[in-house]
Design goal:
With about 150 residues, the protein is of the alpha+beta class. It is about 30% helix and about 40% strand. The protein has one domain (about 5-145): Aminopeptidase, CATH 3.40.630. It has a 7-stranded mixed beta sheet with strand order 1-2-3-4-5-7-6, with helices on both faces. It is globular and about 35 Å long.
């Protein structure tokens, strides 16, 4: 499988593809309310789209916050799970965000669905704080330690 990760924004011709992946994974599969899925941060986030052999396979985004750099909205279509798509997206985002975080002295963090915590841990994220509910799904905060 050839994996290509490209960035995009809400004006990119691929934006509807990113939205459709998130809709399928979060709204249809996980029953997240559509109003919660698309938020006021769409315009200010940096979005990524994974193409596996030229086919849309997954997406994620990052954005600046008061705490640092928050990685969010990781979604991989079911047919592409377990073959490195999510890891490829995460690696690409970290390559972009790590120098910024170091330069600004800020942390890189995310809110992981508890079942996805091992995935993030393999890339150097460690949990902190208690579990909490977000979009009616149990999450735990994790920060990048490298």
């Amino acid at each position: 499988m050839t994996l290509k990760i490209r960035n995009a924004d809400t004006k990119d011709p691929m934006w509807p593809v990113i939205k459709s992946i998130r809709y399928e994974v979060f709204v249809q599969e996980q029953k997240v309310d559509e109003q919660e899925e698309y938020d006021e941060h769409e315009e200010t986030s940096r979005h990524f789209l994974a193409l596996a052999d030229g086919r849309a396979a997954g997406t994620a985004r990052w954005r600046r916050t008061e705490k640092g750099f928050k990685l969010e909205r990781f979604a991989v279509l079911e047919n592409f799970r377990g073959v490195g798509v999510g890891a490829g997206i995460l690696k690409t985002i970290l390559e972009e965000v790590l120098p910024l975080a170091k330069e600004e002295g800020k942390e890189i963090y995310l809110h992981a669905q508890v079942q996805a915590m091992p995935f993030y841990a393999r890339s150097g994220f460690v949990p902190y704080g208690d579990e909490f509910i977000e979009a009616e799904i149990v999450h735990r905060a994790m920060k990048y330690k490298g």
